């Protein structure tokens, strides 16, 4: 993995980390993460699922970007006074971030600021203002699509250049003879970008002098909170992010972890087979050589 990641980092393909020319809402969404969200040609995106509503290929992820209360938001001013803000009727923030994870972002981290990955405040086109009771998903939000009840044309990034750095870092740490300096350099590449706006690092930002697997996994979670990476990270490592008293994260054995956003207080203790899907019975019947995965 380290060797393959190095090949991508040095192949001259032109992939780069987008720069933060702003930190979010106050500067017109000029952050790196808004560029990735809205661009069809960002050099940070290596692979994306492409969408274009005009071609009948709209992305319906907007149905999962807001709390259900947004369906009741009504304009109180302008030409739409008394009318619903959004025509989209099916809205449910089913992939919301746990407080423990959001709180683990350090001060100055652009990724945690309003309208980068998450947001609570919205001003309608008529000038009405609303505050959500939860952190909603800005990375999936498309105002035009929500207003007109249609799929969004925003692409969905599957693989970004920042992930290549973090794959390499994890691989270097897991080698028989770990290359910790190289891993540290690559984690700092991603982390420094997150704390730097218009070329100026945030006050108090310091680079890591050395990194551990915990640092790499936390950086992955902070960098890709809405790109469906954490489940595979948990499955691959059998580690789960656990908030500490200082709000940092320590990745602990999933069998002993306290899971977040589980209303039934369920855990993976004695249930680690649930990290892998069962093989469908119809597939087993068609191929007698297949056996069921343990635990099912």
Number of strands: 8
- Rounded to the nearest angstrom, the radius of gyration is 21 Å
Q: What is the beta-strand fraction?
A: 5-15%
Physical arrangement of strands within the biggest beta sheet: 1-4
Overall pLDDT:
93
The shape, in one word, is globular
Largest sheet: 2 strands, antiparallel
Structural class: alpha+beta
Q: In terms of per-residue confidence, which ranges show pLDDT below 50 for 5 or more consecutive residues?
A: none
Portion in helices: 25-40%
What is the H/E string?
Answer: HHEHEEHEHHEEHHEEH
Number of helices: 9
Beginning-to-end CA distance, first to last residue:
32 Å
List the topology elements.
Layout: H1 2-9, H2 32-38, E1 45-49, H3 99-102, E2 118-123, E3 129-137, H4 143-148, E4 156-160, H5 161-174, H6 180-194, E5 196-197, E6 200-201, H7 213-223, H8 230-237, E7 239-243, E8 249-253, H9 281-286
For the structure shown, list the relevant keywords.
alpha+beta; two-stranded antiparallel ribbon; globular
Question: Can you give a write-up of this model?
Answer:
- The protein has 296 residues and is of the alpha+beta class.
- The protein has nine helices and eight strands.
- The strands form four sheets. It has a two-stranded antiparallel sheet. A two-stranded antiparallel sheet has the order 2-3.
- A hairpin with a 5-residue loop joins β7 (239-243) and β8.
- α1 (2-9) packs antiparallel against α5 and α6 (180-194) runs parallel beside α7 (213-223).
- The chain is globular, with a radius of gyration of 21 Å.
